[in-house]
Amino acid sequence: MKTQGKRVAVIAALAVALCAGSAQAQVQVSGNATLTSDYVWRGSTQSDGDPAAQAGVKVSSHGWYASGWGSNVSFKPDNGAHTEFDLVAGWSGALATDWNVDVNLTRYLYPGTGRRLDWTEGSATLSWRQYAWLQVAHSSDALAGGHRGTYGLLGARLPLGQKLRLEAAVGHYWLDAAQGPDYTHGQLSAIATLTPTWELRATVHDTDNAARRLFPGAAGGRFELALQGSF
User: Fold this and answer.
1) Are 85 and 96 in contact (CB under 8 A)?
2) Contact criterion met (CB below 8 Å) for 182 and 175
3) Which of 27, 51, 119, 224 is buried most deeply by CB count within 10 Å?
């Protein structure tokens, strides 16, 4: 709990530092909103297959940023979690021509659960020209299970004209044996641009049998339809 407290303090300190410098540096504020038929995260539903409403806001300056994001959630059996809030602090920028990196710290919060489900994860994402990306994330308390876990995701994007693109990704979660088996998941999306700020995304998700054993009833083949907006 002391380690988690320090991590939360780091996130808060970065956010405060960013806001404190707003008077002297150009600050950008952006946001997003999503209506989805199923909130699927790393291969398993977080809303018990039901629709979810999601929204987030991001404040950034000179590569540094802090953001907050929220969604309704529902788990079976009911563990008291009905809302998820993610607090993120990090930095993103160019490493070289065509190459970018994003490094951040995320705190997952589930109000009403007495902090039983809250946990923290560090993540780094390397991307190439918006066409491919590799993410590696690690936590000493993965999924609030009290054990270490490392997650890797490899993704690719294929434009099909001005208003349509395909995205595919494969992820693998290495979990401590005391918590559960390692598992793999994949997803394929078709995204249509409706307006400059709105997109319609159709995604097919699937997982291996290890995920089905670890998250019975929540993992496996799933279809998700989402309307996403940004401002």
Assistant:
1) no
2) yes
3) 119
Identify the CATH number of the domain defined by range 2-230.
2.40.160.40
pTM: 0.88
Q: Which residue(s) pair with 206 in the sheet?
A: 186
DSSP letter assigned to residue 47: B
User: Are the C-beta atoms of residues 102 and 85 closer than 8 Å to each other?
Assistant: no
* Sequential DSSP letters for 61-113: ETTEEEEEEEEE-B-SS--S--EEEEEEEEEEEEEETTEEEEEEEEEEE-TTS
What sign does the CA torsion over 147, 101, 225, 184 have? negative
What confidence tens digit (pLDDT) does each residue in 44-74 have? 999 999 999 999 999 999 999 999 999 999 9
Number of Cβ atoms within 10 Å of the Cβ of 194: 12
pLDDT, position 6? 53
